[in-house]
Amino acid sequence: MGHPVLGQRAEQITDVTDPELRRLVEDMVMTMIDANGAGLAAPQVHEPIRLVIFQAPISRADPGLSEAEAYDHTASLTVLINPEIEILSDEKEGGWEGCLSVPGLRGWVERPAHIRYRGLGLDGKPIERVAKGFHARVVQHECDHLDGILYPQRMTDLTKLIFESETKHWLEQNA
Ligand code: NI
User: Would you call 166 a catalytic residue per the annotation?
Assistant: First the structure.
């Protein structure tokens, strides 16, 4: 947080077939897995281009979803190039977020609960999905990075910006 690349608008990707992109994605996937994160945006590894990776495993989804409901709440590891987000409902949901670029902290962020997103995969094919719950949250968090926005800038109540080591005091309360 504070590095200029994290505060700028990232550039549209014009050549999806560029082999450098594939290398970058491989690096990003390793970085994300090492950090036990759910997503990563290219600016976080100092590449100011419109590319994000994310995953929304069932283990992060709301408990008790039916199989049909879980469909929109989950996503396997996804590479999304030049993403666009459409908000599908006014309803907002709160959730705790963390970020590799804001280490050691967690913050309570309200975001639209129901979105559609579009972009290109690494194979150049279009991706279009509806997302809810954690899936909607991680996509919005990562795409915010492409517009120079970190999650604390989305917070409305800074009393809920806390150290990771203190989450135990909050998690039970807001579970
Ligand atoms: Ni982040």
Answer: no
Handedness of CA 64, 34, 3, 26 (dihedral sign): negative
Residue 77 C-alpha to ligand 1 middle, in angstroms? 16
Distance, C-alpha 29 to centroid of its chain: 13
CA of 151 to the centre of ligand 1 (A): 7
Asked if 77 and 55 count as a contact pair (C-beta separation under 8 A), the reply is: yes
Convert the pLDDT of each residue in 54-72 to its tens digit. 999 999 999 999 999 999 9
- Ligand 1 center–CA 91 separation, angstroms: 22
In order of start, what are the domains of the chain with their CATH numbers?
A: 4-95+110-149 (3.90.45.10)
